[in-house]
Amino acid sequence: MNKINFYLLEYAYAYIKRNKNKNIFIVTVFTLLVALLSSVFFITTTVEHEMKERISYKPDIVVQAYKAGMQSSVDSALLDKLLEINGISSGHLRVEGTYDFRAKNRLFYLYGVAPFEDQEDPFIEQVLQNEALNSSQMLVSDSVKESMHQAYYDKYFNFIKPDGSLQKVFIKKSFPVHKRIELQNLILLDQDTLRKIFGYSENEGSDIALSVANKNELDFITSKIRLMLPNAKVVSKNDLNVMYEKLFDYDSGVFLSLFVIAIFTFFIIIYDKANGLSSEEKREIGILKAIGWRVEDVLHAKFYEAAIISFFSFFTGLLIAFVYVFIFKAPLLGEIFMHNTLLDIHTFNLDFYLELSYTLLIFLLSVPVYIAATLIPSWRVATLDADEVMR
Amino acid sequence: MIEIKNVSKIYDGNIVALQDINLRFKEGELIILKGVSGSGKSTILSLIAGLSKPTLGEITVDKKKISKLPDHFAASYRRDNIGIVFQKYNLIPTLSVTENVLLPLFPLNLPRELMKEKSSNVLQKFSIEHKANVIVKNLSGGEQQRVAIARANINDPKIILADEPTANLDEKLSLEFIEILRELKSKKRTIIIATHDPLFFDLDIVDRTVSIEHGKLL
After folding, report:
1. A140 and A82 in one domain?
2. B117-133 pLDDT, tens digit each
3. What whole-number distance in Å separates Cα of residue A247 and Cα of residue A241?
4. pTM attached to this predicted model
5. Which range marks the domain in which residue A319 is found?
6. Are A255 and A199 within one domain?
7. Which residues of B touch A (CB under 8 A)?
8. Which ipTM was obtained for this model?
């Protein structure tokens, strides 16, 4: 079987055409199975990949202050205290938070920018390049600008401060978020202006972002801060990774997929086995043997037959999944799979990302199984005496 | 030369198809195996073709023990030495005439030109070349039999086995088949025909008629 025999390949193809109805059924089930599983894996791996990328832009550790179970502002004195911990290389007070834009029933994400401060997120760094903001200016995403425009705020917006007074901030420029859909609610403005909007004093911020020199010590340092500040919420990058994986319920997705693949594959096998080889098929194998085909030749042709069906179905299923997930952005299935409200499928780009191991897993659980299910009954018949064709 | 020595064939442990058969066929002979349905004619053909093995006894073809050949070698032996014409033709109905005729050669993966040449020669020989690309199921009974004969001869075999070859043919087509046999005999092929058609019994080309009844030679 080391050289392609095109005669046997043509014979196998003719055989498939002869048993059109049965094979159309198998190809349909097989293709749908691969398409469904590949879609699930495409969604899970792509979203996981995007999430990991997003987490990589986050600070190593974020410390939030809590009072009576409610998040409160943090003082710069706390930052000085944290910077004394061995292993923390740098840190800064951040001013950020959401703002309820009631006119359009939308939450804006406000992020305070301090002059000459480096940004962890390369996208924000890029937006701020050559854009010095004064205290009455802001940069808004195109989407935010559109929402403001719909509420007739074309040049500026009046933020309502906690005391009820207004803080007028002019729109300096808008920026496209491109693939960073999760940042479509972003507004960048001067840190001190944002303090006024949130009602913070000069030394206060919404949280503290810390960098750790040795990433292997991240968990150790995080637990150290937790011990030091029992009232604070301390979130590390590692915690975020674990949290997102739990939210996404990734493991159960994989098990669900394996369960589905097993059911469908068995369905195909059972269909094939229940039918076994028809008397026509048995007779044909008998004829082939009578005219000089060896058992290997019969199996060679049967292998081609199963390979044509399984490879065609596998790659068609893969193509359907690709188009469904990466071109149509997984309608229905994406929402079903991302049922958790904390993960909104619409904030993910679903840009093409292929985790080869999962594609290989689907391949191994479907194609060789189908080929074996075709070859075994044929081998059984082919090894019997072929004299029935003479009787 | 084909030699059948003390051959018995028992199916499913108790159905005796052949009982202590001894036969010899010389090269170039045309032999008729005569007998009613179920007498054991087809079983003899199937044993000579190596399609099944005798329960007892031994079959040799050109001093080779066919009855002991493992399946792998039996298939090669058939491909190189035997041409079989089945009663119901046993063609693949959805393949073309050319494809059916070339079917025994498919596993050999020969070059296309050689395959084309072989099919063209054999189709011409059996006057079916004008139907070369027709799907077999669209042919008449006589034409299908010509295809079956052409397929049996694609390898230029030394031995031709025919099982009730005229059972599905009218008289005219049966006579045509006899003409084909005449031609094959002139080429020194050993031909063994299992039949109960009286048309064969008095033919000048027939060297011998062997009668079988209930698995025994008469």
Report:
1. yes
2. 999 999 998 889 999 99
3. 10
4. 0.77
5. 6-54+243-390
6. no
7. 42-43, 45-46, 49, 51-53, 71-72, 75-76, 78-80, 82, 84, 86, 90, 92, 94-95, 99, 102-107, 109, 115, 151, 155, 163
8. 0.89
